[in-house]
Design brief:
Blueprint: E1 5-15, H1 18-29, E2 35-38, E3 42-43, E4 48-49, H2 52-58, E5 64-74, E6 80-90, E7 97-105, H3 109-128, H4 138-148, E8 151-162, E9 169-179
Parallel strand pairs: 1-4, 2-5
Antiparallel strand pairs: 1-9, 3-7, 5-9, 6-7, 6-8
Length: 181
């Protein structure tokens, strides 16, 4: 199976039971009706990015569904947690792209998203043979990648939440969901 389409989603769930909070995060993300199989970090060549709404419409009840997922959880009141995925797509349509996962504590959404996006872009840059200085700020490297003409798209999908003030389990997810057709 080589996926033809991909969409991105995120969700949060809170419940007194850890597993139920994960289920509620899946529901919030719109992918609870699937049997989720997590995979590693490659976006296949020519894989089309579609909207979350169109992607969810194409899911079938009980479908085996492959995705790259970042997941984090806490039962500590007010603890900030995050789940982020970063995406980096090459200009060349016959080359694969990358997805990274980042699970954070105490990071705001922007910081977690930038980290995940930077990680995916750095993995793709090394695959493409692009020179880069890992000590430069992400904003600088992002501009360098785009001006190279070889990386055309980077983005992140992030969900953050504070642990429930009454100590319920809080789970956050961010996912890149693959579709065959």
């Amino acid at each position: 199976m080589v996926p033809k389409k991909i969409f991105f989603t995120k969700g949060v769930g809170r419940h007194k039971h850890e597993l139920q909070s994960f289920e509620l995060a899946l529901r919030n993300a719109g992918i609870e009706k699937c049997n989720i199989v997590t995979v590693s970090s490659i976006i296949p060549p020519k894989c089309k990015i579609i909207s979350r709404e169109k992607g969810i419409e194409q899911l079938k009840l009980g479908q085996i569904t492959y995705c790259v997922m970042s997941r984090n959880k806490t039962y500590e009141p007010n603890r900030l947690i995050g789940a982020a995925i970063g995406i980096a797509m090459p200009k060349e349509k016959n080359t694969y792209g990358y997805i990274s996962e980042h699970h954070s504590y105490g990071e705001v959404a922007q910081k977690a998203g930038d980290y995940a996006e930077d990680l995916a872009a750095s993995m793709l840059a090394t695959t493409l043979g692009l020179e880069f200085n890992p000590d430069k700020a992400w904003d600088e490297r992002k501009q360098e990648y785009k001006t190279s003409g070889r990386i055309i798209r980077t983005q992140s999908v992030v969900k953050t939440a504070q642990g429930d003030k009454n100590g319920l389990w809080t789970t956050v997810i961010a996912a890149a969901v693959f579709l065959e057709e």
